[in-house]
Structure formats: structure tokens, C-alpha cells
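ARCHIVE CARD
Drawer: 12
Card no.: 0347
Subject: one protein chain, sequence and derived structure
Cross-reference: see card 0346
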Amino acid sequence: MNFHKLLIANRGEIACRIIKTAHEMGISCVAVYTEPDTNSPFVRMADEAVKLNDSYLNGKEIIEAAIDTGAEAIHPGYGFLSENAKFSRDVLKAGLIWVGPSSKVITSMGDKLKAKEIAEKAGVPTLPMTTNPNKANEIGYPILIKAAAGGGGKGMRIVEDKKELKEAILGAKREAKTGFGDDRVFIERYVARSRHIEIQVLGDKHGNVVHLGERECSIQRRHQKIIEESPSPRVNSKMRNAMGDAALKLARKLKYESAGTVEFLVDDKTGEFWFLEVNTRLQVEHPVTEEVTGKDLVYEQLRIARGEELGYSQDDITWEGSSIEARLYAEDPSNDFLPATGTLIAYENDTNIDARWDTGIEQGSVVGTDFDPMLAKVITKGKTRTDAANKLALALESMHIGGVTTNRDFLVASLRTKDFLDGKTTSDFIEKTNPQRSVILEGSNLESAACALALWIQGKNRENANILKGMPTGWRNSRLPKQNLKLSYLDKELMISYKSNRDGSFDINENTKARIKEWTPGGIDIEVNNRRFFSKVTQDNDQAVVHGPWGDALFNIIPRFSLPGNELQAGGLIAPMPGKVIDLKVKVGSKVKKGETLVILEAMKMEHQVKASADGKVTKVLIKKDDQLENGALLMVLDS
């Protein structure tokens, strides 16, 4: 069953990740891509690529691409068709090798209700649940509504009160239908102070099954993971053995082949655990397991697909150190973590920091609404958990990124909280700990960043000068005013006035003294009032991203003359993100209360409610159902 050419039925960072290991094994790779991904790194990284006419969900077209290019195997990555049983069957029918478990296992575990039934038969504990809304009271509030056919937070709702049940079920069913083509949902007990802990399993075609320990994935927003780690600070050896044994029981009953994950919900107080689901694919968070075990999971998947035995037993598995992964998203933590869009003006990690970057984008990449907003996974390993957390925070803080709003600052703040370092990482971590959502520059930090930008721009101007290139900037043979640069940062306008002195220093504004130690096209080594630092600087037209010890700051360079722009309409309600209008709950003349849902938008297969910020009356409605909106589009006008 050996193969030398592999088609990857996926995109972005996971496609890059698979290509890397496949190349190390001497396997050439075929990428498939759609129009938005024409310039993506994974397309160039592959040995050849096929443009799809439809989407990453068109299994027939992907199989045809494999056959046309001579690929003998298909790796589905995660998401898209990775847990589509029909696709896996079609791959085998076409005479190709499927890198993953059998379609029978995918079918049974893809249906959460069926999966719970099989888990119970295998002797694995499960949470109380029902498919009948009338029996919700028997489970007891709060309850959790979940999609039967998928995960990733889609089709999931927490319900605190019986009054909210009907609307929550309708919303969950809509989201499940959009995300998985199946609107079935079920109701389960909700455990508030819980942890999400999963066990990584590997099984070959010869009946050998092992587990590679646990990953904790409790820190989530919108029921989606953002920080994962291995080992878990809550799990001791006794608990690890119990959860590992339960996962192996289920894996053996399923006759599991390839890599898979058995997810459990753990009561933080008692340590009691219950089966949640089996993910019949590679997990986004798989790198932390690789870091502590030394096992390359993609390598193991490809070996198993070739029919090879694992070649080791459970007693051979060892764990060393601690590894933590953070998911860098294009989203706004200060605005309920809503997805963000735009063009990455700057995107560069600091290679001096020992961290692993799994990414599929680069400087200049456009972040739109076509795909999940994850930009990268950043992974560190340390001798201790504290070492790993500190390294990860520093790696994130040291990266140069701008042009798109991200959760970078929020991740750094989370990793440095006392609760995180103490291992208090239950599912209510964000609500309980409330890490800082973003870094806003003020005082001397803002002044230093603005000075660095102003003097970098003057250095760029001197570098690009066609005449008198060696003349000091702003030199005159008479007394004239200082040079000026007008900037805006968030809602602040800044005027930087500077002049150069004979000793090479600069006087800036009233009381600031600066000196350039070194200027390069990519940044500036500068001393501002005796504080020396290096700033990476990236400019794109009238925008510039400045990185320093404080992180990154995005400035707008205000031209001396500007055309008048559109004014905001008083009382206007705007779209907080780009998306499609799937429900419009009001019309002109409707009276609304503060907090009332007015519009439901769908973006990236998730629903987002736009609510009234105050009591009022709708005087204008500027949208209709099914409209596709841009971020900031005017939705309606309220007279409060």
C-alpha cells in the first residue's frame, strides 16, 4: 500500500503542516485551491496544485483532481470533508488510499447521539441527555443544546432559563443546518465549572491501539478553543490512566485506525469525567501532543495509511516537559470576539524566540469571510508549564502584526494571569479572570511609537531622495519651522514636530530628545529620552504598523489635504462585522427595548445577534433578509 504522491483536500496552515511531513517522508504533494486562495503559501509550497471550480466541499471534483495528477492517497486535514463518511467511501471506490479511519467509524462517531450510545456500551460514562425539549426540566437548568452532526461550537447554545429554550433551539438548528447540513440537536446537562480534556489515540490496521496522553482545551470563546496544552494541570497520573483506559476501550470497540481524539468533560471539583465525542481526524491542537511525546502525528497517520504497524506499545509512550498552543485569530476581543477582516500590512514572527509557528498566511494576505479567521497556531515547549507559558507570551508579544484586528494582546494577557499560571483554566476562565482584551498605547509609550514612526519616515525619505541624499533631513541655511507629521491612533490625533541638530540628535515637540542609532527599511533602532529600543516598521500607503516593547500600534498618516468623507448618521446602527442577513426582526415603526435582538447575521457559518443599545423606535431600515453586508454597513436608524 505504499504511495509516493498525496493530495491534500484542505487549505491554509493544516495543508502546509501536512506538506512539511510528507516531504520529509519523500512523498510529493498536490494541493487543491479555490479563487480566494490563489496566492496562499500552501499552493506554492505543494509540488503541484489544481484549482477547484467549486469549493473544498466538492468531493467529486477533489477526487478527479487526485486521479488527474496521479495522486494515490488523499489526506483530508480537519474541517471540510475530513469527517464526511461518503467522501471517504468515494475515495476508496476510486481506488485511492484514505488517510483516516474507516467510513463506518466516521458515520457512527459523526452522529453524537449514536456515539454516546456506543460509548455507553463500551463502559464509558456519559452525561444525561434528551432529544425531547419537554424533558429539559428533568435534566435541570442550565442546559446545553448541541448539534447532533458536528462540533466546533456551531449549533451550540447555553440555556439558563426555560423561557429562552424555544428561541435557543431554533437558532441552534439553523446554525447546525448551515454548518453540517443536518439540523438535529439534543439537550445535555451543562457543567459550569468544567474542563475539556481529550485523549489522543492512535490505531493501526493490525489491532494495535495506544493513547498519547491528554490535552486540556478548556479556555474557549463562543465554544471554540483558543488555548490548549499538554499535560493538563488538573490531571494526575491516576486520572490520566483512568481517562486513557476509557479512551482505549472505546477505540478498541470501534476497531479504530489512524489518529483520533476522545473528548471528555471533567468536573473541576470532583474530577469526575464524561464522554463528549470522538473526533475522527487530526485535531487543530495536535502539536502540543507532538511536542511532549516526540511523535509526529501526521507521520503516524501516513504510516498507518500505508498499512504499517505502530511498532510500539503503550509502555513505550513517554511524556517530557510541557507544551502550550495559542490560536491567533483575526477577531476583536473587545467586541465579543467577533471576526475581523482586512489585509495584513505586517506579519512577521521573531525568529529569536524558540516557538513553533503553524501558519498558512503571510504579509499581504487578505483575511475575508470565506474561511475560518484563524491566522496561526503558536506553540512552545518548556521544562515546566510556567516556562512554556512565558515563552508563548513572549513569542506572541514579539511578533510584528497589523492591518487586521487580532486576539494577540488578549492571548498574551491570558497567559500571564495568575489564574492561568496557577492552572485555574476551567471553561469559565475568560468570564472569571477577564484578561485584558487589547493594549492601548498611552503616555510615553504612545509618544515613543509616534517618534519612532516619524523618524523612520524621514529616514525613508532621505533614502529615496534623488538629490542631496547626504544632506541632513530638514536642513536649511536659515531659521525655518520644524518639520511636521500628523498622525491618528484610534480616536486620537497626534502632531509630531521635529528638527535635526548638528550632533545628529532630534528635538521633537516640546521636551523630547531622540537619536537614531540605526535606520533600515524594516525598522529603526532609536533612543527616545534615554530609552533605547528597536521598532519594526511597515508602511502601506497612509497606514503604518510600529512594533516596540509595547507591542504593535497601527497609525494612520493624515495627509495635509483630504477630501471630505461620509458622515455617520445619528442613531445609526451599523454591522459589527461582514456577513449575511439571515433574520430581520423589526420594521419601520417598531418600538424596541435595550438588549432586544434586531438583526441576526451569519458569518463563517456562525450566527451573531445585533442588539439595540437603547430603547427607541425604528425610523429607517436599510437592509433586507439575505443581503450580504460589509463591516460597518448602516443597518437601520433608531430614534431614542
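Annotation on reverse: The radius of gyration is 27 Å. Confidence is low (pLDDT under 50) at residues 563-568.
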